[in-house]
Amino acid sequence: MTTTEPIDAPAFGYWARRIGLPVVISIIAVVGSIGAAVHGEPDARRPDWFMVLLILIGSLSLYWLRTRPVPVLWATVGSTLVYMLMGYAYGPVIFAFVIAVFTTIRLGYRVSGWSALAALYIGHIGGRFVFGLTEFGLYQTLLVGTCFVVLGFLAELFRAHRDRVNAAARTRKEEELRRAGEERLRIAQELHDVVAHHISLINVQAATALHLVDRQPEQAAPALSAIKDASKDALVELRSIVGILRQSDESAPRQPVAGLDHLDHLVTRTSRAGLEVHRIVHGEPRPLPTGLDRAAFRIIQESLTNVVRHAKATSATVRIQYGEQALVLQIDDNGQSLSAPPTEGNGIGGMRERATALGGSLTANRTPSGGLRITATLPL
Question: Residue 126: its pLDDT value, please?
Answer without folding.
Answer: 79
